[in-house]
């Protein structure tokens, strides 16, 4: 029998089902995923964005959690005490809709799905501390969500106001702007309307500047694009507020109002004023003969979202109010128009229009034949009136009184001085960020702990009466909102005595947006069973902020912003010391099939359970990790779980063949293999630190192949370096193929969990003589020096160069045109 045939037959003994059955209980018994509290290297808190219990786990979870887990496992191997908890974001609409349909209570659907997912997570072997499991819909959790709301309220950070909100007539609920897609409800497709409602808000705008400033702490540790999205969302604008007077008429008095402008330098070019058509101010000033037209216009724009209103492809619309305002610097008389392209709730809801230099104003001026006056000489710019293109560039001021002759930047400062001196305005910074509308008129969420009393007004539910529990006796149709929240209709729940005066009062019947629940769960995990506060101060001082947060880029804005806001408020309450919740962030890509996101309608979905049954957990995890760097998409049509399975079987077989005893002195073994092990470990460490997880799998494969060769036709199965190689393979596998790793480790004669083996140390002597310094250049400049093997392949050298953090930083968003590799010494990247 040839060696080849024998190997293949024996690899068939790789039985993933047996391994999965064997090692799961072992990890429970050894509690290896629980923090010990005494690791000499310190602590690391690794967190995956917690799941929503929509059904069983899917391929997206499989990818995200393989990546998150790899972080946790790596820290653990490095000797840190690792906190890696798991829980569920378990309030939300789908549970309620299921309950209405099935005539049940939402908790039935919710907790059944949680159990299913929990079982799958355990099978998937995520290295989670199950003793810390939490569900945001548990009273033990939402009690503290309510408690936090009360602290926010006391600080003036939770308040109610009337506002026009997006309203879905079918779901009978308020929608956030992001939940309105092309004017329709994201969930059910019904055309969204506007409705004035009294709603609860968190005053996140108080923290706008801090949210911007503290991003400095995240630079280089969060993906650049996420930081950019946060920055844009907060949207800081510097400029001025300028006050204008509207002239009195025979029937109407004079009025004064302010505009916000980022371009006070263009004041001389303002030729008309536009006020938001839907603002109360428009109604207040409109001349009697224009009132009907304005009313009609307001009706017409009601259904449009803010995004539609500001879309640059829509033709401008508007109505004249019949009134004129006076330019405070020039005395010119400017007609006042009302339009939808000015938003009521941004800036002051009114603008001075400078059509020569602002595209939207230009389009409006051309449509309604309003004057266009150039006040900035912009080099190369065409005439706005004839070209239809506003001169928005830099230049020197013209036709602008005292500002004439100044370059734009100076004119900006000077214009602010002028209006300030004239008492008609002042420099001003505003933010695009709005306060967070947190109330929902739905059942399955955290009840807002407020009681409304005719005499006392809003009264917080006393802390010792928290939590305000959701009623258990509502089900099915009773949960369907009928213009008001189902809780408002439940009198036996809603009617209570006022905590202050005892008079009959009503509970607030709104529940909180589920983003509130997920804005502090990472704080709860440090002590999820603590019952005297949201978290135990002692445990918090030990764990603090999350060291590595892993999740989808779809949460780049809201969830992360809200979590950052909560963290800052909780800090200001004196409960924690850190400013930012997540020190580092890793976004995983999506799992696609045939280039498209998996979906029912496309019929390209892949069932995770079936994949696990067929190939085993480890093969699926390995496939996910090997397919691409974590942040890139994985296309299931391009991967090979059976290839992963064969690799794992080969690795497993190598370990079975080792004949030396544990503890043999590897330094007496085959030198070439020793060197390869050292190089592999060294490189892998760099790859792990830079999040190049896919290459770690490739490196393990190389080591497996080399070890196989050493056994079959080199040093032989008894060589101490062969054992060292097999043990190293087990440790690398423990990061992404946990069952195989544990099996291999025990087959090699160890009787403690492989995760406690420790990341291998490298003897630097083994690295030196075989390595040379490779230089990585970009645009002719040296960006990195890499210690690489003398015999490194061009391919490998290129991968290493592109994986280098400094190199990536200098490439940034630029496109790589060409990579010229002269192994082993030079890589030249053309961008
Ligand atoms: C005059 C002007 C001249 C402007 C010019 C721009 C260019 P950002 O950067 O987004 O803050 N604006 C102010 N309030 C508005 C509102 N509620 N709805 C729509 N547009 C509004 O933009 C600020 C600029 O957008 C302001 O500066 C104002 O137009 C307009 F050459 O004033 B500007
Ligand atoms: Zn009262």
The CATH class label of one domain is Alpha Beta
Helical coverage, percent range: 25-40%
Q: Which spans of ≥5 residues are poorly predicted at pLDDT below 50?
A: 1-9
For the terminal residues, how far apart are their CA atoms? Answer: 54 Å
Largest sheet: 7 strands, mixed
The whole-angstrom Rg is 32 Å
Q: Number of helical runs?
A: 30
| CATH-defined superfamily of one domain | Valyl/Leucyl/Isoleucyl-tRNA synthetase, editing domain
InterPro entries: aa-tRNA-synth_I_CS, aa-tRNA-synth_Ia, Leu-tRNA-ligase, Leu_tRNA-synth_edit, M/V/L/I-tRNA-synth_anticd-bd, Rossmann-like_a/b/a_fold, tRNAsynth_Ia_anticodon-bd, Val/Leu/Ile-tRNA-synth_edit
GO biological process, one term: leucyl-tRNA aminoacylation
GO molecular function: aminoacyl-tRNA deacylase activity; ATP binding; leucine-tRNA ligase activity
Catalytic activity: tRNA(Leu) + L-leucine + ATP = L-leucyl-tRNA(Leu) + AMP + diphosphate
């Amino acid at each position: 029998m040839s060696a080849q045939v024998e190997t293949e037959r024996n690899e068939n003994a790789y039985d993933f089902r047996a391994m999965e059955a064997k090692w799961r209980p072992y990890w429970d018994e050894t509690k290896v995923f629980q923090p010990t509290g005494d690791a000499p290297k310190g602590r690391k808190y690794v967190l995956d964005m917690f799941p929503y219990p929509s059904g069983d786990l899917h391929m997206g979870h499989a990818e995200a959690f393989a990546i998150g887990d790899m972080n946790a496992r790596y820290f653990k191997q490095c000797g840190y005490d690792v906190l890696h908890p798991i829980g569920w974001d378990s309030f939300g609409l789908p549970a309620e809709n299921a309950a209405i349909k099935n005539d049940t209570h939402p908790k039935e659907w919710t907790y059944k799905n949680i159990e299913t997912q929990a079982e799958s997570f355990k099978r998937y072997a995520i290295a989670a501390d199950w003793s810390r499991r939490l569900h945001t819909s548990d009273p033990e959790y939402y009690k503290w969500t309510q408690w936090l709301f009360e602290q926010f309220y006391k600080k003036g950070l939770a308040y109610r106001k009337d506002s026009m909100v997006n309203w879905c007539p079918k779901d009978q609920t308020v929608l956030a702007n992001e939940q309105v897609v092309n004017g329709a409800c994201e969930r059910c497709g019904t055309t969204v309307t506007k409705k004035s409602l009294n709603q609860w808000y968190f005053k996140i705008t108080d923290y706008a500047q801090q949210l911007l400033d503290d991003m400095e702490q995240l630079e280089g540790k969060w993906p650049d694009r996420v930081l950019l999205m946060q920055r844009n969302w907060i949207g800081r604008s510097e400029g001025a507020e300028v006050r204008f007077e509207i002239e009195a008429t025979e029937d109407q008095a004079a009025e004064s109002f302010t505009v916000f402008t980022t371009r006070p330098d263009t004041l001389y070019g303002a030729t008309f004023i536009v006020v938001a058509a839907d603002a109360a101010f428009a109604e207040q000033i409109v001349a009697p003969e224009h009132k009907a037209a304005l009313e009609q216009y307001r009706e017409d724009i009601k259904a449009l979202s803010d995004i539609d209103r500001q879309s640059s492809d829509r033709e401008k619309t508007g109505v004249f109010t019949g009134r004129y305002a006076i330019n405070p610097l020039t005395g010119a008389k400017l007609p006042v128009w009302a339009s939808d392209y000015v938003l009521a709730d941004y800036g002051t809801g009114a603008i001075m229009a400078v059509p020569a230099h602002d595209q939207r104003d230009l389009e409006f001026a051309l449509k309604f034949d309003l004057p266009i006056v150039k006040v900035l000489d912009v080099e190369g710019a065409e005439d706005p009136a004839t070209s239809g293109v506003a001169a928005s560039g830099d230049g020197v001021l013209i036709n602008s009184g005292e500002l004439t002759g100044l370059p734009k930047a100076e004119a900006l400062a000077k214009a602010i001085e002028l209006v300030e001196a004239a008492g008609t305005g002042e420099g001003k910074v505003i933010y695009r960020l709005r306060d967070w509308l947190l109330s929902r008129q739905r059942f399955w969420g955290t009840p807002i702990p407020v009681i409304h009393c005719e005499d006392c007004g809003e009264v917080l539910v006393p802390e010792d009466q928290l939590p305000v529990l959701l009623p258990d006796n509502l089900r099915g149709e009773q949960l369907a909102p009928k213009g008001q929240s189902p809780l408002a209709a439940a009198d036996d729940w809603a009617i209570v005595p006022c905590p202050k005066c005892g008079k009959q009062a009503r509970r607030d019947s709104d529940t909180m947006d589920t983003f509130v629940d997920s804005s502090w769960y990472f704080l709860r995990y440090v002590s999820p069973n603590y019952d005297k506060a949201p978290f135990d101060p002692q445990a918090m001082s030990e764990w603090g902020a999350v060291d590595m947060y892993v999740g989808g880029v779809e949460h780049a804005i809201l969830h992360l912003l809200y979590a950052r806001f909560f963290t800052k408020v909780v800090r200001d309450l004196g409960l924690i010391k850190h400013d930012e919740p997540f020190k580092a962030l890793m976004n995983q890509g999506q799992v696609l099939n045939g280039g498209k996101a998996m979906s029912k309608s496309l019929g390209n979905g892949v069932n995770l359970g079936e994949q696990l049954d067929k190939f085993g957990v480890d093969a699926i995890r390995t496939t996910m990790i090997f397919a691409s760097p974590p942040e890139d998409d994985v296309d299931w049509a391009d991967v090979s779980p059976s290839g992963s399975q064969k690799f794992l079987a080969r690795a497993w077989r190598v370990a079975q063949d080792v004949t030396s005893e544990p503890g043999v002195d590897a330094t007496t073994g085959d030198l070439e293999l020793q060197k390869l092990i050292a190089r592999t470990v060294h490189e892998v460490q760099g790859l792990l630190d830079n999040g190049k997880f896919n290459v770690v799998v490739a490196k393990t494969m190389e080591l497996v192949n080399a070890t196989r060769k050493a056994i079959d036709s080199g040093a032989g199965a008894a060589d101490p370096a062969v054992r060292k190689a097999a043990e190293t393979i087990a440790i690398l596998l423990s990061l992404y193929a946990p069952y195989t790793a544990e099996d291999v480790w025990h087959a090699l004669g160890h009787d403690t969990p492989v995760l406690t083996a420790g990341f291998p140390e490298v003897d630097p002597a083994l690295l030196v003589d075989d390595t040379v310094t490779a230089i990585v250049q970009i645009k002719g400049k040296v960006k990195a020096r890499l210690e690489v093997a003398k015999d490194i392949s061009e391919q490998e050298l290129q991968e290493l160069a592109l994986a280098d953090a400094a190199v990536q930083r200098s490439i940034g968003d630029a496109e790589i045109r060409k990579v010229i590799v002269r192994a082993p010494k030079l890589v030249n990247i053309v961008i």
